[in-house]
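Quick note —
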Amino acid sequence: MIRPQLNSITRLARAGALEQAWATFHAAGLSPQSDDPDVLTVYGRLLKDRAAAESGTVREDLLNRAITAYERASALSRATYPLINAATLAFLAGRGEAATTLAHAVMALLDDPLRAAETPYWIDATRAEALLLLGRTRDAERMLRRAIGHQPEAWEDHASTLRQFAMILAEAGQPADWLDRHRPASPLYFEGILGLATDDDRAAEAVAGAVDALAPSMVVGALAAGADILVAEAAIVAGRQLHVVLPCPAELFRTTSVEPFGPSWADRFDALLEQAVAVKEMDDWQPLSDASVEVSRQAAMGLALCEAKRLQSSARALQIVGRGEERGKCMARWEALGLRLDRLELERSDSRRVTLSTEAEAAALIAIPESLHFCLNGDGVDLARQEGQRAYRLPSLGEAARRASDLRSEYPDARLGLDYRAVSDARAGRWDRVLMVAVADLRGAVVLSEAAALALALHAPEANVQPMGDIRTALGDLTLYGLFP
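Predicted structure written out below.
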């Protein structure tokens, strides 16, 4: 029974949900005094991740505790994975002699026929890391290239190795640009025009060519009739993952943005939903509006950024516009982050259009206990109160996150929530989600809705946002994230 728990903790840690991983470790009754090498390896991983966010003596203590756990795990199992981690952490802790000794021990263990079994990728990746610790950078790169050749699309494994290499090179003060040659393929955010005929082969060929040229690891976007669906289909044909982010429930989106262009597009939409790795619906807004589409766009871009960070890669964007028309929706925030943006022009082959409601606007909603003083500074609106919480509306998500974080620092036990959604002054009750989010008890964090968390990756990419699981509410299951210091 312990193996599924350890796998779950590792998945949480890989996803960046460190606080939830720690909570799961303790809830499972696991102990650093265990004689189970797998428990010790996971414990070392959690200590290593926590050390990455600390400095000074706190970081040094965490690193040394992780080294001890990893060394014990390797001694009990004769496994190279915990031993190479011990070697790297010794290097990061400034214990150069110990790091060298451990790296030589790793090399010897790799050649020991009695060692624990490993995949060909991890054998060569581990040898590459040991070579890097021993200062043999050219040999390390050669071995890393061979490791990746064993499993060229094992992107999460590659990312883990590259993260280790980057830390070693940074600590050694050596250039790390050569790692870019080995990074996983980039996640691709996409958006495009409506107004394409279902049998527009020229458009489909152009879109497929653009997707092939970018060679993404995955694509992230909506599925409106036209260019969106062409990108998603091209990605599926190329064997790439499809992540769908919709501004509203899929049935409503289908009715508003797909069916008006013909039943063939609707059938293709349905087929893509079935093939998607994940489908996220950002809101239950009625009716669909320009503002809810904008929130969904930003959340999809944020998801691409989060996936790129997880994979130690860099996100890209593909925007498909009408030939001779304006450049399309603003991508200034994306470009301000120094991210690649490709544009493809297509002739519109279908004159039909969809007009969405313009009465709403994208807004950040913050919920705080009524007992706390909160100054709007003339840039917000006092919306409502419920169960001891008060909801406010602010025009900027980044500013709302900063002010919520300041309140968290001043009042560490207060329950604070942040949401991002389309809001209309003419419609009551659109702030209910932020009040429900704020009730969740995530100690040490501002609680975020999924829309706020994903969009914040675009507005404040340096923010420490972690997935925290789901809660059941009157609105259905809500996925929560925590904004930590």
